[in-house]
Amino acid sequence: MAFNHLPAGVHDALAPLSVTPVTHSVPMAINHRSDRPSAPAASGSSPGTVLGRLASGPSRASRITHTEHLPPRAGRHAVWPDRIRSEVVAAVQAAGIDHPWEHQALAAEHALDGESVVVATGTASGKSLAYLVPVLSTLLDGSEAPNGRGATALYLAPTKALAADQCRSVKELSQPLDTAVRAAVYDGDTPYEEREWVRQYANYVLTNPDMLHRGILPGHARWSSFLKSLKYVVIDECHTYRGVFGSHVAQVLRRLRRLCARYGASPVFLLASATAAEPAVAARRLTGLPVVEIADDASPRGELVFALWEPPLTELHGEKGAPVRRTATAETADLLTDLAVQGVRSVAFVRSRRGAELIALIAQERLAEVDRSLARRVAAYRGGYLPEERRALERALHSGELLGLAATTALELGVDVSGLDAVLIAGYPGTRASVWQQAGRAGRSGQGALAVLVARDDPLDTFLVHHPEALFDQPVESTVLDPDNPYVLAPHLCAAAAEIPLTDDDLDLFGPASRELLPQLEAAKLLRRRTKAWHWTRRERAADLTDIRGEGGRPVQIVEEGTGRLLGTVDASAAHSTVHEGAVHLHQGRTYLVRSLDLEDSVALVEQAEPPYSTVARDTTAVSVLETDIEIPWGDGRLCYGSVEVTNQVVSFLRRRLITGEVLGETKLDLPPRTLRTRAVWWTVTEDQLDEARITPEILGGALHAAEHASIGLLPLFATCDRWDIGGVSIPLHPDTLLPTVFVYDGHPGGAGFAERAFHTARTWLTATREAIAACECEAGCPSCIQSPKCGNGNDPLHKRGAVRLLTVLLKGAPD
Fold first, then answer.
1. Cα dist. 229→123, 148, 153, 159 in Å?
2. Per residue, what are the HEC states of 429-482?
3. Cα dist. 686→69, 298, 491, 638, 808 in Å?
4. Residues 680, 743: contact at Cβ < 8 Å?
């Protein structure tokens, strides 16, 4: 059996808060039966009281394993810099903000001084105002210029939802400024008839890195008046730009800076993030510029009560008779129902689109038993909806029309949902940064807030709810990216040359690796040097050489069979596992069955139905060695680097009963495999080494699997990657090596350079891996050593001591 560990990018390519834990008793305020909602209650209760109501009943209280209490904090006021226009200060005051917090005034001061700055304060600390005030003041100055367009500003968000939300906020704030501020969104949802107006007249353009890469920079001539007047570039939620995606965005920003310089502009960059580790370092790497860090949060904070919640065991039994816990999906749906009955405005975050739809559907059904009008006040929010559906949901949540929303991480980032009282997190989202981002969506108006992390039936989640120090005593993860990665840099050099021919003077901007890459791009006939510049030689668009998010393939359209109505879309990378024939597809509270999936035309036909089950796809992953470039003896074992082919295939799907998760049956599927050709590092051990390490056949799989997990977790320290950019497979007997083998591979077509760096630092890398496992104080393995948040096998099997012994023997043979 192979234990596969897929990176986020593989499926796509296949086609600082530290607190001291304090456990508190939970007040039991109002009792109501846990199996049926009671009548609506009034909102406005304290977080502890709300939690007490959730925990009332004969079995609920025992589900809370830990409660963390973050006390309220007073704010520190300041005054806006004198250079801020009085009209802007008046507009801010009209919005109900008499005085800025100290960090807001300081950020504005640096921005006006022409210094790039990163504001790394907590959620709901007013970061938006910190950059908006100097931007609006500068735009107002520019509107009085006798000639030309005046000053302009560009806002970049990682999601369309955040850009749309920020545009609404800017328009509300700048309304007293009349026409001096002309804000507009320019992204894939912008109607074509509006795009020309945005290019010609908007002076505050809100977009995303994807549109900047594919639309604005290649068409820079049409944006020349905007770019030559560009004063500020705002980069919101900058911690999201990590790994390969972050490296791509870093090069997109360098292309932007180059074009601005050609038009005579040198914009100041204003960055914001609530969950960044070493924010100045990350911001400097992202922009290529020196950046001032502002991390002293002067805003007030309401009380936050954060509960860890473990669903109860059921009477069902799984494989080998193991007891089965109630699903996090069903538990979260019940909690969302109870919060809505209390009148508590809430968002439930869930990792999958299907999970978001299912939670909303269950909550709606249960609320309808109490009051049909309540059922209409809960909805789902996820990617794949039509643009008008997303905007309507955002407006309904912001206005308070919606009491509850089950959302994917599409709503995690910064969207202003002021007035939320509670956040539910259905399963650990993979990073502490995401936990705090999601928890921070509540209490954004300064009131107290409740956050509840509901554990999945998974070793990692189980560990966290019983070891709260692993969550609350650790800083957020570092933002790792590498703009000099040649696999990332090469296509952006081509894109830059297509925009304006590259000269020697440009190369310092793109980093030292660019000089080494240019001869290779010439040899590949992508670039040609004429006189003193490199030119793009192809007819196709250079910007299309790379997809900065690595999604690949056109989205699959989901069409209602009887009416021909387009319901939405799903990424090509996810189609095999989510809209295969027989899949249950949920959309806006309605349930559909997929009747057919046409991969050639990228269409899934569905019909409305009400099956009493949900579906979950099962897949297999295998790695085959295509070519071994380098092989080094490590004692009797071998360390290798070369090309591999990763094959992933969805082979069947399970039907699971709603609420309980009981498996009703499995249906085979005949879908084509998806392959990824990439680069990998792998190591093998012999029978003699296994004997020396006291590794028996019974624990071999767990030892290899644990070593694989830990090595992936440590590789970002040596290869400047993100663990979501790499994948792994461990197998006790690999058909190509005929030995126990562990693979770690790049999750991007053609490779991204991570495996190569791993090979060249293997001794240091694997030594650190062994030490990290051995030094961990846990008994049998935990997220700090061998458990992984993205394991395709549910972190099973794992054998901690076996991994330590195995790596010890392997490293004995490593060359100096």
1. 32, 9, 8, 25
2. CCCHHHHHHHHCCCCCCCCCEEEEEECCCCHHHHHHHHCCHHHHCCCCCECCCC
3. 52, 59, 41, 9, 14
4. yes
Overall average pLDDT of the 696-719 stretch? 92
Element spanning 762, H or E:
helix 762-775
- Strand pairing of 449-454 and 304-309? parallel
Looking at 39-159, list the stretches that DSSP marks H as alpha helix, in order from N- to C-terminal side: 47-54, 86-94, 102-112, 127-143
Query: According to the model, what pLDDT value does residue 24 have?
Result: 32
Cβ–Cβ under 8 Å, residues 548 and 209: yes
Residue 391: what residue type? R
Edge-first strand order for the sheet with 378-381 is: 64-70, 304-309, 449-454, 422-426, 346-350, 404-407, 378-381
Q: What is the DSSP letter of 73?
A: B
Instruction: Find the mean pLDDT for residues 729-746.
Output: 96
Question: Could you read off the pLDDT of 79-120 as tens digits, one per residue?
Answer: 999 999 999 999 999 999 999 999 999 999 999 999 999 999
Residue-by-residue DSSP string for 276-303 = -BSHHHHHHHHHSS--EEE----S-B--
Question: Percent of the chain beyond pLDDT 90?
Answer: 56
The SS3 call for residue 95 is coil
> How far is the C-alpha of 542 from the C-alpha of 251, rounded, in Å?
14
Question: Distance between alpha carbon 47 and the CA centroid of its chain, in Å?
Answer: 27
pLDDT band at 771 (very low <50, low <70, confident <90, very high): very high
Amino acid making up residue 242: R
Give the three-class secondary structure for 796.
Answer: coil
Q: Is 470 exposed, middle or buried (0-12, 13-18, 19+ CB in 10 A)?
A: middle
Tokens linked to 270: 């204003």
Cα–Cα distances in angstroms (integers) from residue 112 to residues 91, 346, 407, 589, in the given order: 19, 38, 38, 48
Dist. CA 397–CA 729, nearest whole Å: 42
Output 619 or 576, whichever has higher pLDDT.
576
Instruction: Give the residue carrying structure tokens 């302009």.
Output: 152
Residue 776, pLDDT score: 84
Question: In this structure, are residues 50 and 339 in contact, taking their beta carbons and an 8 Å threshold?
Answer: yes
Query: In sequence order, what are the residues at sequence separation of 6 or more whose Cβ sits closer than 8 angstroms to the Cβ of residue 261?
Result: none
Q: What is the pLDDT of residue 410?
A: 63
User: Residue 224 to residues 41, 125, 230, 260: CA-CA distances in angstroms?
Assistant: 57, 35, 10, 9
Q: Give, as one character, the DSSP assignment of residue 403.
A: S
Averaging pLDDT over each range in 157-161, 410-414, 807-811, which range is the top one?
Answer: 807-811
Lowest mean pLDDT among 26-35, 609-618, 684-693: 26-35
Query: What is the chain's length?
Result: 816
Q: Is the pLDDT of residue 445 over 70?
A: no
381 pLDDT band, cuts 50/70/90, is: confident
- The full DSSP string for 507-524 is HHHH-THHHHHHHHHHHT
Angle between helices 86-94 and 127-143 (to 10 degrees): 140
Cα distances from 491 to residues 238, 501, 511, 703, in angstroms, run: 23, 14, 14, 40
Q: Is the pTM value of this prediction over 0.85? A: no
Run of H or E including 765: helix 762-775
pLDDT at 418: 59
State the helix-helix crossing angle for 127-143 and 102-112, rounded to 10 degrees: 40
Pairing state of beta strands 378-381 and 404-407?
Answer: parallel
Question: Which token pair is 369?
Answer: 């038993």
Measured distance CA(367)–CA(346) in Å, rounded: 14
Give the span between the Cα atoms of 580 and 577, in whole angstroms. 6
Q: How far apart are CA 578 and CA 653, in angstroms?
A: 10
Please state whether beta strands 204-207 and 637-657 pair in parallel, antiparallel, or not at all (unpaired): unpaired
- Spatial separation of the C-alpha atoms in residues 812 and 808, rounded to whole Å: 6
